Amino acid sequence: MPSDCDDATRVYHFDLKPLLLIPELHMRKIADDSIDLTIGRYFKMLSKFLEMEPVISEALKKFAANDADQKDWKVIESVISLFKDLGIDKNMTDFYAISNARGKGDHRLAAFHAHSVEQSFADFFAKVISAKITKKPENFTDSKTPLTTCIRIMDEEEANRKLLILTVDDSPAILEAVAAVLSDEYKIFKLPKPTMLENVLKQVNPELFLLDYQMPELNGFELIPIIRSFEQHKETPIVFLTSEGTIDNITAAISLGACDFIIKPFHPEQLREKVAKHIVRKNNLR
Fold first, then answer.
1. What is d(CA 236, CA 148) in angstroms, rounded to the nearest whole number?
2. Contact of 175 with 241, CB cutoff 8 Å
3. Three-class DSSP category at 230
4. How far apart are CA 220 and CA 174, in angstroms?
5. Residue pLDDT, tens place only, 33-85
6. What is the pTM of this model?
7. CA angle (63 as vertex; 58, 67 as ends), nearest 5
8. Backbone angles phi, psi at 190, to 5 degrees
């Protein structure tokens, strides 16, 4: 049974997508195990967690310094059941280890466990905070809707989503030509300024990159390390669109992590075939 969260001073709304991407938060399992758990109830429990965070962090700090008292122990114990109801398995296990060590009178072991989880707990809290939204969106699901239903709807939408291709070229004509060929089947993000790529990748998550080779300021080769610096793009396919398809260029690009070349001017069918060969759907909800 979910914990009683009626004492939360404010109920926040959250964006479900980033919540589902938090590895420490096992929402799918909780939704499947508690089929009557509504999205409103789940958000209420998360709201209580946000309200309690300063007290929890202070208790952790005192335990880590071997300066905790009975009140701090009760804070740790009280939050364990909430973590269980929210599906915060890792933190629940860590906090139980602190509580168990304190219960056995082993203060040094409790301090050790508390010190080892301080940063991971802070990182987890930051992820939850980043999913909090300040204004209820227009398409917000009714709070009485079961959480499992919300997740199922999002999964269905994700399965039907057009795959995203980010194409970088300083030629507007090439960008438009790529979009004309591929936009019926894929979502195309057109980027004419290669220097903006890093900022763009903080906002969008492509399934494939089409890069021009020769561009001012940054060429296609120089964009590859920028792409690979993002954890989610360590293996995202990169295809070069270029009029300079020499053996040396091809070898250099592949050594840097590109998977293919398309020579300009390209034939529409060749572009479709190359993209279809390399593009891989990233499930953005798992």
1. 30
2. no
3. coil
4. 15
5. 999 999 999 999 999 999 999 999 999 999 999 999 999 999 999 999 999 99
6. 0.73
7. 95
8. -100, 125
